[in-house]
Protein: Putative ATPase involved in cell division
Organism: Rubellimicrobium thermophilum DSM 16684
Amino acid sequence: MQGPARWGGRATAARIEPAGRLRHKEGQAGGQAVIELRQVGMGYGGRRLFAGLDLSLQPGSFHFLTGPSGAGKTTLLKLCYAELRATEGQVMLFGQDTRSMGRDAVALARRRIGVVHQDCQFLDHLPLAENILLPLTVAGRRAEGEVHLPELLAWVGLSRRADALPPELSGGERQRAALARAVITGPEVILADEPTGNIDWDMSQRLLTLLVELNRMGRAVLVATHDLTLIRAAKAQVAARVLRLREGRLLQAGADL
Ligand SMILES: Nc1ncnc2c1ncn2[C@@H]1O[C@H](COP(=O)(O)OP(=O)(O)OP(=O)(O)O)[C@@H](O)[C@H]1O
């Protein structure tokens, strides 16, 4: 595994952060949350999933979100990056209420959030490197990405797979590629939905380490996962808060985890 010592830790972190933003630390007194949900309610087709839900992600924080299948973890993540609009309450992105933001403002805020989706889809006809560059290509910032790409690929351990097509990748390689794609724009927040869903324990650990490293670089990280073993393993690496979504309520998990 490539650890911070091997690839240069913080110095490298600065280089894989093209946007050159941030360096907040968790616990900055009274600091503005990067994402905040206030009394949020959400449901589909008249069926309420949750209500009165509060969540505040501070810069530099690390949260796990757990809960039974169908509790609404993916839905909650989608609210956090304004993929969905809440049916009740306020969703604040970087201090702005999404209800009063136009489409462009929401799009700008979303660029500051990197998302690793549960199914991590790629364009199968494009090599891995192109897929990772895609968010910057679309934003007209491809050249910026090309400068950082070799180091980013090395960081996720995929230097030798740059030319591979997505269908040729293993599950763990896909997850790491998805993480690289999520961070190439230099987001301030990383939201990961079951990033270790289909990969073995060693690879889960490796992915966890990458997320912890991102967090040490100052990013807020929120990971939705069923995997309580992963959460327990993370405790040795990071001061993470564990939130449990269950029967429409979001609770801080106790010492039983
Ligand atoms: N677009 C949608 N339309 C209707 N119902 C939906 C939609 N998306 C999700 N649901 C339902 O909402 C509930 C919560 O789904 P969600 O995917 O958020 O849960 P989850 O906790 O992430 O589940 P899992 O752990 O299985 O991924 C489920 O019952 C799901 O079927």
